[in-house]
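Review form for a predicted model. The reviewer records the input and the model, then writes brief findings.
Reviewer: anonymous (R2)
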Amino acid sequence: MRRGRVTGVAGDILAKSGSHFRSHVAFHHPCKAEFWLQIRTVALISVKALRGQTAATDFLPPMLSYGHLGSVGTIMMIVRQDVHSADIPVLCQSCEARHRGVCGALDPGQLVGLAKTSSRHKIEPGIELIGDAETVDSFSNVLSGVVKLTKSLSDGRQQIVGLQFAPDFLGRPFKVESAINAEAATAVSLCSFPKAAIERMMKESPELEHRMLKQTLNELDQAREWMVTLGRKTASEKVASFLLMIARNIDPTVDPTAKSATFDLPMTRADIADFLGLTIETVSRQLTRLRTDGVIRIENNRHVTVDSLSRLERRSGA
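Model under review:
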């Protein structure tokens, strides 16, 4: 890496880091004195990265990675926003799995270690992620999209047994082979890491083990709820239940208290029928009925708008 004069963000901060700047911070923000150390640390990290002395750019808050800081007030505002995550790798800072998934149980040091072995990649719809009875050597967090889980019989018959959304954990720790087939139902973004790394961290971190157990129990509860859907609900209630599940889970960035939703159906009519134990014709007929009743709107055969989730929930028989 080129060794030259420090410019940009790091240069701006260091240029302002004299006694006048410290006096300004101390006078106007006496209760925020620790921000001075944070600003100086971020600047020095940037300098070291520029000089090739460290890979510390992985820890630089994204708002400080671009442009120039025009004032002390701007610097103070940014540090206030990022002081709580200054030790978190950039790769993890905006990740839903860190906030709501299994990685939320890891401390900054563990995240750093995991980030060094992890990789992000995008998968096109229809691509198999892992096969039934296939040896498992890595796990993944689902960052976006929908993953379809299936089980197959010896004669080739197949049943969809579940769907996974962000930030679900894809994999089964402490098991040599996969017991299911996982396929990208939509375009999927994954963050993958070695199986051995996660299993080691689970042994070292009770918090991670607890988070994994909690997710497993949640999946068990969902499976039991879906057994009721398949065994006792009418065709109309099954289709409404499916749409409600998609609306609530397909986009992790949406406010969970939202009263409406818009999404693209992640599966074909044939897959939906397989998932619900219905025929393709029945699925199409029930979607038309929900649209005619004003519960949903469908555009281009896949884009669904639900103006009232509470109304859809009532139609689901919940």
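Findings: Confidence is low (pLDDT under 50) at residues 1-84.
Further findings: Residues 206-232 form the longest helix (27 residues).
Recommendation: see findings above.
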